[in-house]
Specification:
heterodimer; A: mainly alpha; 11 helices; B: about 250 residues; 8 helices; disordered N terminus
Chain lengths: ~250, ~250
């Protein structure tokens, strides 16, 4: 049993390092590219939106960066994972290995990027961070991303248009998550709706971990997003378990 | 798939056991989509690849599977390898299966030969320590020592096939599945490969080969299974090959 777990982990980590090495091996400045994207986004969005009344919060650039970092983790993982099984069809048709490792390793490789980005944040908060909140935020983000990625990637094998759906959904999702704005600027009823989006709470948690001013209270509203996350994870696992046996048939 | 390890085997140590196994595929004329399914535009045509196959292959048997294209040979191997799942019936496979269909599975062009040995080894089900132990032999057998630090995109197709073959034969399988391409590479490597496969024959491993190369099967198998339209036509000694030849000539 332990041995099996060890083999599974070795395999998943080998795929993770394939993902990371394959991506950066020959890129000049290699790992710099990892954080370049959220950093540039922060600069551009920050420069423009700080002049729009209502958007600017205290420490707006830090506020933005702590929203963009988890969001870019989520969006790259989810959008790359959805068509992943189809892209790896040559592997799936040829060998019987744990299929979920493909998705998990993709997410793990993005977790490295997220960690590097979080390290960059530290100097700007005077190296103060609430480790417990941060660990909670990262794990929640990881499980939610893994669950939804497994669900959509499994469905995409049988229904190839699921990938289009994901790609159309993500930009809309970006604007319904308080990344570039603070929930406070919304009317009360809309603020309530934001709770239905687990990403809202996850990002708020990241901000809270670094002590970035946040007046949005999420104390009592955790129950809904947490149960939604659980539903997504369980559904993802169930659909994956059912469909993975027949992946080869649809390739 | 109902797969379980048998410890209380009643019959003489069965390696592969099929009980009334059936497998069908949906015929697809275009990419399957969710929109298509909802509007009932998807094809419901089924292709019956296997129709109630029952057979038992004992440990150490050397079985050749023959039959025209589309008779279900590859589906049979895929089910035995755990890549595909049957619609109904029971499959029991005892021991570690490695198939030489998996050459090059998961090779990444940007990674070096060495990194690819580990990746491919894990994909075909070797443990990390196992790969470490066999590493020198794998490199030696492939004859690619000089190139093992170079990225795989610098390899010719023959070279990467040689590497793949070399990993597969050093993975210490209990059951070996061979598809058409038994021999890869140049004349010298081909001879080396056949010698290696013959040594498996001598070590008493269970070997199932699918091939149209009837003379090869005649020399290396002790049992021949003749499939046609997903059913077993004949199952017996190598004399089945003569029956099959006669039948093909008639047609």
């Amino acid at each position: 049993m332990v041995k099996q777990w060890q083999n599974w982990l070795d395999f998943t980590l080998a795929l993770t390092s394939r993902e990371i090495k394959g991506r950066y091996k020959h890129a000049a400045l290699g790992f710099l590219w990892i954080v370049a994207n959220p950093l540039l986004q922060m600069l551009v969005i920050g420069l423009v939106f700080q002049f729009i009344p209502g958007f600017r919060t205290e420490n707006y650039f830090l506020y933005l960066f702590l929203g963009l970092l988890p969001w870019s983790f989520f969006t790259t993982s989810f959008s790359k994972a959805t068509p992943l099984f189809v892209y790896e069809r040559y592997l799936i048709k040829k060998a019987a290995f744990p299929r979920e490792s493909l998705v998990i390793s993709l997410i793990l490789s993005n977790l490295l990027h997220l960690s590097i980005g979080l390290l960059l944040v530290l100097p700007f908060t005077g190296f103060s961070v609430n480790a417990v909140l941060l660990a909670a935020a990262v794990s929640w983000l990881f499980f939610f991303t893994a669950g939804i990625s497994l669900l959509f990637s499994s469905l995409n094998v049988k229904f190839r248009d699921v990938d289009f759906f994901t790609k159309a959904l993500l930009p809309l999702w970006f604007y319904t998550t308080p990344i570039i704005y603070s929930p406070e600027i919304l009317p009360h009823q809309l603020q309530q709706l934001l709770v239905l989006n687990p990403m809202t709470l996850i990002i708020q948690l990241f901000r809270a971990a670094f002590g970035v001013p946040e007046t949005f209270s999420f104390g009592q509203s955790l129950l809904i997003p947490l149960s939604l996350t659980l539903v997504v994870v369980v559904l993802g696992l169930l659909v994956f378990k059912k469909e993975e046996q027949y992946f080869d048939d649809w390739m | 798939m109902k797969k379980k390890s048998v410890s209380q085997s009643t019959n003489r140590q069965a390696a592969i056991q099929f009980q009334n196994v059936a497998k069908s595929y949906t015929l697809k004329h275009q990419k399957p989509t969710l929109v298509g399914t909802l509007f009932g535009l998807e094809s419901r045509e089924r292709f019956q690849a296997l129709r109630g196959i029952s057979l038992t292959i004992s440990q150490g048997e050397k079985v050749g599977i023959i039959g025209p294209n589309g008779s279900g040979k590859t589906t049979l191997l895929k089910i035995a390898a755990g890549i595909a799942t049957p619609d109904s019936g029971k499959v029991v496979v005892k021991g570690k299966v490695v198939s030489l269909i998996e050459l090059e599975a998961g090779f990444h062009p940007e990674l070096t030969g060495e990194e690819n040995i580990f990746l491919n080894g894990l994909i075909i089900g070797m443990a990390k320590e196992e790969i470490e132990q066999n590493f020198t032999q794998i490199v030696q057998f492939s004859g690619l020592k000089k190139f093992i630090d170079s990225p795989l995109y610098t390899y010719s197709s023959g070279m990467s096939l040689r590497l793949g073959f070399s990993i597969a034969v050093h993975s210490n399988p209990d059951i070996l599945l061979l598809d058409e391409a038994i021999a890869v590479g140049d004349q010298e490597f081909r001879e080396k490969s056949l010698k290696k496969i013959n040594s498996f024959f001598k070590q008493g491993k269970t070997i199932v080969s699918v091939s149209h190369w009837l003379d090869y099967l005649k020399n290396n198998c002790t049992r021949i299974i003749w499939l046609e339209q997903g059913k077993v036509v004949e199952d017996g000694g190598i004399e089945v090959i003569e029956l099959y030849k006669k039948d093909s000539e008639k047609a």
